[in-house]
Amino acid sequence: MKIAVIGLGYVGLPLARLFATQYSVVGFDINQSRVDELNLGVDSTLEVEAELLQSVLKQKSDDALALGLLCSTSLDDIRDCTYYIVTVPTPVDKNNRPDLTPLYKSSETVGKVLKKGDIVIYESTVYPGVTEEECVPVLERVSGLKFNVDFFAGYSPERINPGDKQHTVEKILKVTAGSTPEVGKKVNDLYKSVITAGTHLAPTIKVAEAAKVIENSQRDINIAFVNELSKIFNLLGIDTHAVLQAAGTKWNFLPFKPGLVGGHCIGVDPYYLAQKAQEVGYHPEIILAGRRLNDSMGEYVASQVVKLMIKKGVVVNGAKLLMLGITFKENCPDVRNTKIVDVISSLADYGIQVSIYDPWASPDEVKHEYGLITNSECPKDQFDAVVLGVAHDVFANLDYKKIKKENAVLYDVKGILGNVADGKL
User: Whole-prediction pTM value?
Assistant: First the structure.
């Protein structure tokens, strides 16, 4: 048995590393610089520690079937694999419509090397039907093989939580499925061999696809609810966090908090489910309402900051503001679909000059993705306003008195500054 993992990002690399402890694995990616750094034992996403990565790496000269991980951009290195696991991202376009381009391209790649008896497993989050109705036809067309006769498919949705060192891939229960009952058992057994938390074999691929997409849609709707509550309580002059803390004393109250909903999952997946619902003639009201509310929070935060600046007599047009954080979540370098950029864009519309400080984010990646300049060290200037947008641990130790003017606004999106010593505020 030899496994190819297609796509070596936040999902693919941890999975490839885990499988490489028991199997011969080739990690395939089209990004040569990414492959080069991984073969040196360096992971810029910080998902796999250097020691763990280096412990499974092997060179091309090693036995092809020996345990370990080889990272490559060459199709020749994955031709003799028997399992192909696709872990590419599934984003949305500027109109929030599902963009399946990465899935199509990776399916074409696998199709070029697909052989009789091979199994192709998809981990990318999709709407029900994508694996068999969108990806399999590409595999058939490129390979010339027949589905469920010459080759088979499986689905096991990723459950990676970027930046989380407690809930790593092997510690999260895995849902699995196959295109036939026999293949389903093979896929389930494969994952069961490395996932210590166990597996759940779903009856069909579509069931597994649907299960994944509603996980994040459910979270999105719940966060939208508390975001709406925060708007209401703000108008009533009530501390939202205090309300949630009090309500949380009931045993079955769900502990969601208000905030900016970004990232590659929660802020994206509901659109995939909505797209499929609309294709079959149903307009999803709650799902899209939750999305609209959460997508509006960036502009809302910016408007609240500006109102506070006006109340404190700060001239808004031309004011200098420091944004603390640009990643989509705390203590993580991932900037995909971060909603901090919505706050920055809205602030800029008011004529505010925004500086960004984030020691976790890659300045080159932020520049490439959003055209924004990011500082890896805290600027020495004093600002008219400071917005804590991401709850990085490092921000709890900042001396805020040094970076803000005397009458400056300090706006804490994440509600963590209550734990900071008074002397630093």
Answer: 0.91
